[in-house]
Amino acid sequence: MSGSRDGYYLPNPSAWPIIGSIGLFTTLLGLMLFLNEGKTGPWLMGFGAATIIFMMFGWFGRVIRESEGGMYNDHVGLSFRMSMMWFIFSEVMFFAAFFSALFYTRSLAVPWLADTDLLWPGYEGGWPTAGPKGPLPIEADTVVADPSRQFSTIGAWGIPVVNTGLLLLSSVTVTIAHHALKMNERRKLIVWLGITLVLGAMFLFLQGKEYAHAYQELGLTLGTGVYGATFFMLTGFHGLHVTVGAIILLVVWLRCLRGHFKPENHFAFEAGAWYWHFVDTVWVGLFIFVYVF
Amino acid sequence: MATAEVASHEGHHHPTGIMRWLTTTNHKDIGTLYLCFSLTMFLIGGFMALVVRAELFQPGLQIVDPHFFNQMTTMHALIMVFGAIMPGFVGFANWMIPMMVGAPDMALPRLNNWSFWILPFAFTMLLSSLFVPGGGPAAGWTLYAPLTIQGGMSVDMTIFAIHMMGISSILGAINIIVTIFNMRAPGMSLMKMPLFVWTWLITAFLLIAVMPVLAGAVTMLLTDRHFGTAFFDPAGGGDPVMFQHIFWFFGHPEVYIMILPAFGIISEIIPTFSRKPLFGYTTMVLATACIAFLSFVVWAHHMFTVGMPLAGELFFMYSTMLIAVPTGVKVFNWVSTMWRGALTFETPMLFAVAVVFLFTIGGFSGLMLAITPADFQYHDTYFVVAHFHYVLFSGAAMAMMGGAYYWLPKWTGHMYDEKLGKIHFWLTTIFFNVTFFPQHFLGLAGMPRRIPDYALQFTEFNVISSLGAFGLGLSQLLFVYIIVKCVRSGVRATDEVWERPRGLEWTVPSPAPYHTFETPPKVI
Lengths: 293, 524
What we know:
The structure holds two protein chains of two kinds. Chain A contains seven helices and four strands; from the N terminus they run ββαααββαααα. By secondary structure, chain A is mainly alpha-helical.
């Protein structure tokens, strides 16, 4: 490898990025064909996803070996930390787009639509709404007999408030694990990070139950007008990010079991923890603006 | 790590041929890849523009059918914005930023490779959409719903291509920001950085802030198309205007993403050929930051005629006009830098001066468009087309050409052919104005954009514009020839290349060695 005088690690040429590009392209090509009734779509998607997973094992495996091999000095570590912060900022902006869609439709578009009697006479607006052509909203958490005419929403004080507690608690446990790592108390680290993972899994399980409940009993689906669209896209992308965060923490946990990380140098742990706090914060926003109000 | 150790690792592990370029982690290699990619896309996108201009040479429909015409206008814009201008500037950033701040390479070299190598795949997806049933995307580069909800599978391909370009841009921007914050040589304080580095720092911030918003917007399009959501469908309580809001929240910072690095390049060129330091460096930095901040609160000036409350129209009108202040500061600073300087007009300087002059024309027509009541007349006419080509071609693209002439000797070790360079400059500048100046008149007279036919009274100006466009397109072949010639041969360039230019890049040999500043330079 080449390097610089102050020891900033500069990696050799690597084939992993181009493999990642091929995987990304194949996955999206497959998805595109699948959406347009192409028969090869799912196969291409599977191949692409496998390529991406292969790339991640290879690329991250390489980085982990380099890290454990002591090739990264503090200067490199700072680059990693800064990148992770900016990456999380980009994720914040991605969620901002969907939150904006929620605020815009709810406070501007729907009232305007209801005010214009020319287009949809008799449409009253309000929130939740599935639009002038969609089913009518009824009280939250009520089982709906005919989903083509009615839908119900998920109340904040059932599963969602439990999920809020789970995620907030998991942010605390991951911080306890972090302190344990800094104090070099490995057992405590493994236990508390493990508890964090269990809490994350419980969150995802309850979220899955809630989705099934919405689809099967409440008549609330992705297609339930703009309410269903914003509800499922916001909570869905959040759930996806919790999944990704949990996978990151799982890998970190497995590395902890193998004795990786040092009290003064543990970038992957920090990155995973930051990401976890980020999904936690997004959830608080979701709980307030999607469920409570 | 000692120099000897570096040398011992040089020989092995460095693939040659195509594998060198596929696997490279070197910022100069990746910069070259970006620049070559950008030039290729510039020629492909330019060819599509010529299809458009050929059809508009005469009134009536003669060469292409209207649907294909729409595909050409859409693809021309997508390719020029995402394929030519943005990667072009990232190429400059890759080559120059590590050398300008005294860093051995970019902060995350493997990620840097990935940022580039996503792009050819993204554009393969985008370009191949021209050949699927129903043809390519034809809704304009702004991808407005509901047109894009109704389009064929090419819209899906465009959406996924944009997702890929977004990943590439975000990763590239993260790399640039981290390089600037974390890789500067000792003594290179933020306020000592060359202005090109400053403009890229702010550009990278804009990219990280708005590319995810575009990703969100096109994701909503995708789910509206295939998964039954109703974001943009009033029947379900959605609103097609919402797409425009989200798109332009990305779109307006995006136009500064395309111009700020251009400001950076000419802020490097003008001092060198004026033999004076840049006038008002601190105000330049502050003006750039101001422009970036304002770019987030002006987006709805792209949609004055869509139906907005009066308060909205007024707010977006005033905030837009406010941008003229920091931009004016920049223009005055460039002029003041030249004031009483020992000016010479080599090709890079000619381009820089032309950019200051022509971009200012584009800025003024932008001010006209910012005035809401006046915009009701100009909206969606050729006046808008003229405006954004004055800022994007004679702003962004010509600044890149100037930058290419300015740094080519440093990159290749050869001087470019000065005589041919000047010919290329004059051909480009004259044909550019022949092409786009008449479009102001066409727009003011009411000729709508994105329509393949027009009323007879618009014929003369369209003929002039089309002739200019073909001249402009052919002149760029000369640009390619000059670059190839410069890479292959030419007078050996000195390390300084120009007369006492400022900046660390001129302290290393020409051509710049594969690895520079492995020992950080001392910055005084």
